[in-house]
Every structure is written in structure tokens, then in C-alpha cells.
Amino acid sequence: MLGLVGVGSMIFAGIFLYLIRELSQGLGFFTVFSLAALARFISAFYISRMSDVQQKRDPASDFTFPMFLRRFKESNFVKFVAFMATLTFSTHLAAPFFVVFLLRDLQWSYLTYMSFQVGGTLASLLAAQWWGRHADLVGNVRVLRLAGFLTTLVPLIWLVSRNVLFLTFVQMLAGFAWGGVTLCAGNFIYDAVTPQKRVRCIGYFNVINGTAIFLGASLGGFLASRLPPLQGYSLLSLFALSSAFRLFFYLIMFRSFREVRSSREVSLQELFFSVVGIRPLIDVSPD
Q1: pTM of the full predicted structure?
Q2: Would you list the DSSP string of 2-67?
Q3: Is there a domain that residue 144 lies in?
Q4: Each residue of 108-159: pLDDT tens digit?
Q5: Alpha-carbon span 33 to 41, nearest angstrom
Q6: Residue 97 belongs to some domain of the structure
Q7: Which domain holds residue 28?
Q8: What is the pLDDT of residues 27-42, one digit of tens each?
């Protein structure tokens, strides 16, 4: 439901900005931002009326952030956090600049950009059940490894063509891959961390991941106008660099953490062929 609401708001904003572009772009953005702010105030109102779940504090499960980091060598969960943080850092070298490339360099309209974004979002939503069924069978870690590898390739594919339909397909591939990463990363946290430590570990995970986003985007912003052009565009050089960083950290980290629940042993090649429907590992017949 939340995903469909997000798609609907994206479609509305894209069409509205396209229709009002001749009258006043400033007015268009003011209207969209105002509606977004109003929606957040409404959300905050309903959150304020919710009752929180009571937590029983267990002093034996308390540990500080430095203690958490020091357990990198022996902690399976900390290694998972490092994998996600390095992937996040590498991704956000380029992530803020795809929209700049499309709107500034390729001169896309807001309507075209909206269609592009909706394609990726729908692919992510539709992929969730498919990734989830595979994760139930082979475990979250194997899905993370496959989906994570696919994300390393996405920026490189941007170098192939600037055609609208081709780039929309690439965005759908990205949505499909990131759908698997997001779903199974969340599932793995709940599998790997005991309930007493879960809130603290999720907090530390978010701090580290948020720092990776900040550092990646900051470095990307510094490099965006300083890299030599690739195929006539400096941002394409940044996309290629992001892909290289993703692949570098992926190869170092992807086997550093292990599955924590019993699951079927399959190779990444077998999992890939199942995900694309060539040799399914799961029942694909209708219920």
C-alpha cells in the first residue's frame, strides 16, 4: 500500500510540474513541496496518537558504539554492516547525480523523468515477493550476494546508451536489484540480532549507513566537476567510478558474513538462473 501511494504521488508531481512548466516552475515546485510538507504534518499527527511498545531494558545486552565497532573481527553482524556501509558509500558517490545528468545534461522533461522513476519503483515493488520467496528457500545472505552484485553493474550500463527507453530499462533493473538488497538486509537484521539487542543494533546500523551516505555524496560532489569527461560527460566518469568502487568493496566483503538460519545450499549461478526464470528453484505455478 505504501509503495502504491509513493508511485501515485510521484505520478501526480511529474504530471503537475510538466503541465505548469510554461506558467511558473517556481510555483509548481512551491505547490509540490507544500503538499509534501502538509502530508508530513498529517503523518506526524497520527504518529503522535500512537502508543509505543514497552521495552524491557536488559543491562547485560548494553554495549557502546566503540564496543560494537571493535567486534568487527568476530561479529557476523558487524561484518554485514561493513558490507552494507561500503556498498552504500560507493552507491552514493553517484546516486545524487543521476537526476542532474538526466535533467541538465540530457534535457529530459519532468514527465519523462517521472516515467523513468515510476518504472524503477514499480520494478522494486514487484520484485519484493520474488526475492522474498527465494530468500525463504536459500537464505537472505545468498540473495544479498546476488542482488548486491547486480547493483555493482548498474552505473556501467549507463555508459551504453542515452536512449530514454534503454535508461528506463536500466532503472527497472536497478529497482529490481535494490529491492532484493533492501528486503534481505532488513530480514537479515531480524535473523542475526537477538530481540534484546535489536533496537541498539539497528540504531548503530543506521548511524554507520547514514555516515556512508554523507561521505559518499560529499566525495561525489567534490569529484563531479573535476573528473575528465567520458563520452562527453563528466558525470559518466563519476558513474563508472561508482561502479568500480561498488565492485571493489563487494569482492572484498561479500563472503565476510554468513547465513544464520538453515537454508538450501545453492550456488550464486543457480540462484541467478532461478531468479530470471531459466531453472526455477521455487514453485512458479499459480496457487
Answers
A1: 0.88
A2: HHHHHHHHHHHHHHHHHHTTTT-HHHHHHHHHHHHHHHHHHHHHHHHTSPPPP----GGG---HHH
A3: yes
A4: 988 899 999 999 999 998 898 899 999 999 999 999 999 999 999 999 999 9
A5: 12
A6: yes
A7: 1-46
A8: 888 999 999 999 999 9
